């Protein structure tokens, strides 16, 4: 225990330096949505990952710009969607429908969808809007991958394949193209510590959605596959990642989370 404390003490200057980032983050909290959106757009622009490139997109801020982008992308992809250039939590995201009119979408409760004619009417009503993105709509399987990395080296990546329908659980999926994409992204951006990377299948293959410097909310399900990522991360920080003994990942495991009703005092 003393040796571990001594090693932690040796890292004290690095820890104190990290507090500057904590203070900066606290000051930036009121602007968090704008910062998150800008970082994601920068990720899409910089990403170099042939196994899972960013979704193709075009920015627009007028109806005229939208029309030009729509003609270009609709020739490549069977379905398109829009979202604000700066946004979080999916606010403003809509799939564009050309096979349903506005009343069908309204009366059928089709959330996060909009008719093309209705969208153009809204855009044409304003000379200019806050920048938005037109991009390919991804309707395939979604993957959430919790990773442990060390300055650009990927040590472990546990991928969960999410169901297309709720209530079916999630599958631990170790397909090689996802592992390859995680290694490439980790290396390109020099990722370190806990990382969560999200992917989704589209009509032309796997696409990278997000890269987050944290574990996901579903990491407990990932840990059921073998490696305890939170514990391994702490051990790597204290003793070095070279000494880590990472157990094999049990692939094909079906996992889930169950809410339990309790009596409150």
From TrEMBL:
InterPro entries (UniProt xref): ATP-dep_AA_Ligase
GO molecular-function terms, A-Z: ATP binding; ligase activity
Domain of life of the organism encoding this protein: Bacteria
Source species: Rivihabitans pingtungensis
Sorted UniProt keywords: ATP-binding, Ligase, Nucleotide-binding
Protein name as catalogued: ATP-grasp domain-containing protein
Presence of the UniProt keyword Phosphoprotein in the record: no
